């Protein structure tokens, strides 16, 4: 049975990815940082719906280097990794501290790359491994007021392009999904007015749903997606494209 690690399973996009992959027949390592209950509830739900599959919770702070050793100790078989964790930092670059930059860099770039490195041999084993980053349209187009977030999301895309070439002959595909504005906890800070303004900028005039992102994760994990690598799929209702 195939196993996937989903980082940020306790988040809105991660939870939707877990629901879709569990329904597709995957066993899952469900990572969370602080929101244990969400993952416990998901595992309870999945154990009833999919009794033949395995579901393990994994608590790790992905801002810390020790994360790698903790994950290595708890993950045995692995065919896919989906990086769906992360936070942003709003504000002008002139106000961003060096410490905050380190945090964002580690969380979005360094630790995911170390995780990929640590599990490369496991992903190689069935010659059909999958790595998927949930990046952002801001990583492609950039955004004022979220300059460093845009920078780390762009770095994820650069990693996807480069690493995909290094492991292509091993049958591992490495891709990204770049969502636009998705209706999740991350965007709860918007006032009703700001939300309206944002929607008017989006050609589809609405935010995306987490399920509209997880659908594409599921597609990238299909065996039939084995010839597509080094790409970024933009899921943004036409926004910023
Ligand atoms: N929502 C959007 O519009 C949008 C657009 C483009 C890209 N994205 C990207 O999509 C991904 C998921 O976002 P979301 O909208 O699902 O956000 P969300 O609902 O706020 O979920 C954030 C997730 O990140 C985890 N997390 C936060 N700090 C962490 C840490 N220090 N170590 C490990 N995990 C940590 C959270 O874990 P706990 O809850 O357990 O603490 C949670 O699972 C992020 O990478 C985000 O940049 C989102």
TrEMBL record:
Its EC number is 1.1.1.100. It is an enzyme of class 1 (oxidoreductase). InterPro entries: NAD(P)-bd_dom_sf, SDR, SDR_fam. The keyword Cytoplasm does not apply. The keyword Lipid biosynthesis does not apply. NCBIfam families: EF_P_mod_YmfI. Belongs to the short-chain dehydrogenases/reductases (SDR) family. This is 3-oxoacyl-[acyl-carrier-protein] reductase FabG. It comes from Jeotgalibaca dankookensis.
């Amino acid at each position: 049975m195939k196993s996937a690690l989903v980082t940020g399973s306790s988040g809105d996009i991660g939870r939707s990815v877990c629901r879709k992959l569990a329904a597709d027949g995957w066993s899952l390592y469900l990572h969370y940082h602080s929101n244990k209950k969400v993952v416990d509830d998901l595992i309870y739900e999945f154990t009833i719906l999919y009794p033949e599959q395995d579901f393990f919770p994994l608590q790790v702070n992905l801002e810390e280097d020790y994360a790698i050793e903790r994950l290595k100790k708890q993950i045995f078989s692995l065919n896919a990794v989906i990086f769906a964790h992360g936070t942003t930092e709003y504000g002008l670059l002139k106000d961003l501290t060096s410490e905050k930059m380190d945090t964002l860099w580690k969380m979005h770039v360094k630790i995911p790359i170390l995780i990929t490195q640590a599990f490369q041999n496991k992903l190689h084993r069935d010659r059909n491994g999958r790595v998927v980053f949930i990046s952002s349209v801001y990583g492609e187009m950039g955004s004022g007021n979220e300059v460093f977030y845009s920078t780390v999301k762009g770095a994820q895309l650069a990693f996807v392009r480069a690493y995909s070439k290094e492991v292509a002959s091993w049958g591992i595909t490495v891709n990204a999904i770049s969502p636009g504005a998705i209706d999740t906890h991350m965007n709860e800070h918007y006032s009703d007015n700001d939300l309206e303004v944002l929607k008017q900028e989006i050609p589809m005039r609405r935010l995306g749903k987490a399920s509209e992102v997880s659908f594409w994760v599921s597609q990238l994990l299909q065996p039939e997606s084995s010839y597509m690598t080094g790409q970024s799929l933009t899921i943004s209702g036409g926004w910023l494209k």
